[in-house]
């Protein structure tokens, strides 16, 4: 890419995040920012960049979709035998980032990922379209597919469940909850004087320390 194309400069001036705008918990403020991102029709506003670290200490990142947000944390769903699933099994510490360019906002989270209970994963799986449910059976996420037989596996699974009213959840597919340890909200501001606020979990689980950070 030509240097001139990446050397873009712009001023951020759309929104602000002052102390009076903060919420009691990062989950609450994140919910507000998500709904504001939805309101401006931000593209895939629930897409989050999830970073994991494997057993050898090597990081990797990928996008997953946020499927639930409660005071207890952020929920996403995946294949437990995928690379990220294996990373988390070996090392539950993860990082998550959201970016909504339409609002000049970023959120960075550090936390611990826990598998959801089978009941919780069942409940979400049941809401998925049948084709996605069959896809969960067909895909061996993150494994090599030299055979190029994903379509065939999908057909085979469709056949297998053709007489079943409900497609059961495969054991290898389910959710994680990321429990937040720290969470930083970044609001772009003019003259690079961006506003940053970091929430750190205190001794009591529901207690948060809030610190403004220099940009
Ligand atoms: C917009 C978008 C949404 C995605 N959502 C998910 C998701 O919710 N769960 C998931 O397992 N993979 C999702 N993916 C695919 C992942 O980015 C990744 O390719 C896959 O999970 C395999 O990652 P891994 O090999 O690191 O485990 C999404 C990708 C994109 C671009």
Mind explaining what this structure looks like?
This protein is 25% helix and 33% strand. It has helices at residues 3-6, 26-39, 83-90, 118-125, 130-138, 150-160, and strands at 47-53, 59-65, 68-70, 73-79, 93-100, 105-115, 173-187, 195-201, 208-213. Strands 1, 2, 3, 4, 5, 6, 7, 8 and 9 form a nine-stranded antiparallel β-sheet that branches. Helix 5 (130-138) packs across helix 6. The model has no long low-confidence stretch (mean pLDDT 93). Residues 44, 47, 60, 62-65, 76-78, 82-84, 141-142 line the site of flavin mononucleotide (FMN). The site of flavin mononucleotide has 15 residues, from strand 2, strand 4 and helix 3.
Give short descriptive properties of this protein.
single chain, 215 residues, Pnp Oxidase, Chain A, nine-stranded antiparallel beta sheet, 6 helices, 9 strands, 33% strand, binds flavin mononucleotide
Task: Give a brief rundown of this model.
This protein is of the alpha+beta class. The chain has helices at 3-6, 26-39, 83-90, 118-125, 130-138, 150-160, and strands at 47-53, 59-65, 68-70, 73-79, 93-100, 105-115, 173-187, 195-201, 208-213. It starts with a helix and ends with a strand.
